[in-house]
Amino acid sequence: MAVTAVSHEGTKSIASWGAVLSMALCVALLIASEFMPVSLLTPMAEGLRATEGQTGQAISISGLFAVAASMIITTAAGTLNRKWVLVAMTAFMLVSLLLVAVAPNFAVLMLGRALLGICIGGFWALATAVIMRLVPESEVPRALALMYGGQAIAAAFAAPVGSYLGGLFGWRSVFWALTPIVAVNLVWHLLALPSLPARQRQDVRTMLGLLKRPYFLRGLVASMLSWGSAFTMFTYLRPFLELVTGADVTTLSILLLVLGCAGFVGTWASGRFLSGSVAPLLRLPALLMGGCTLGLLLLGGSVVAAGVFLAVWGAMNTAMSVIWMTWMSQNADDAPEAAGSLMVAAIQASILLGAVVGGLLLDGLSIFATFMGSLILAAIGVALIGNGRRLLKPE
Q: Which CATH superfamily is domain 10-391 in?
């Protein structure tokens, strides 16, 4: 009997980590799909006869719908099995990519991006809660790091490969290339994810209850400032590298590859060293990424300097997700789906506002104004977080 039990648990453990890997691939595809316009901003703007600032709104529109979807998904899904909700979100991503690839005009592009936003909001709202059900509590940070390894993969290869292939074959071919991979991931979800019946019905009152907790509300605002700062800069990174650093397509691809590969370091470090209290780590993303933005403003004319700052930025970008989602899992463990909805809404709202404000600053003033806006948000975030202790639930 003991041998049978051990064998069963071992099989269950392997199956659970297979499901985590399936979610990691989905994360990679979501990140690649959401932020591919960053590496293709200039050719997409030319192809759709729009300004770069307007095309940047392709990211903000997906963020807008992601905010809405993340707020309603746990309520709208009701008692639906969470496995099938995740499968549906992945199917939405596939349809979105097809719409963007064939978009004859800006309106159809926005429609495809809106559908992607629904997928992003729905998936992320449930992702951490699902991870908490797939693995033991002690393994949650490791599983989160593994899942966000998909973010590192996308950051490492999606932008530079997208930029390179877009230069060779046109930006539409990049979105076409993603569709068969999403189809494979859809099948993997069906095979790897276990049945995940809804444990309890979430509603608006649960979310409001979380917002009434001062430590959670403070952390939510701090996370918004961290992501808002990051994506005010990142959304318009290509124009900066072209105008200030003087990067051609090849150099641009190399710099984006450096940024993305550094993400593996951030994912590895966060999974290996994140244990115990997360408080001391909460301010690191805004502090270091804001410092990198300042460095680019001062020394961004040098390709070497730009590469160094982007490497540090890329490592903290992936670590930021693991740090803040671990904070959520530890400080809202009694309502993980509601907390996930709020966190995703906050993050996507920040990405949306970052893209909008950054685009307005770019079109109205200059790329330097866009990066200064990012720096200001980072400084406010660091000040709010402090030593991180005020963001922890009372013991």
A: MFS general substrate transporter like domains (1.20.1250.20)
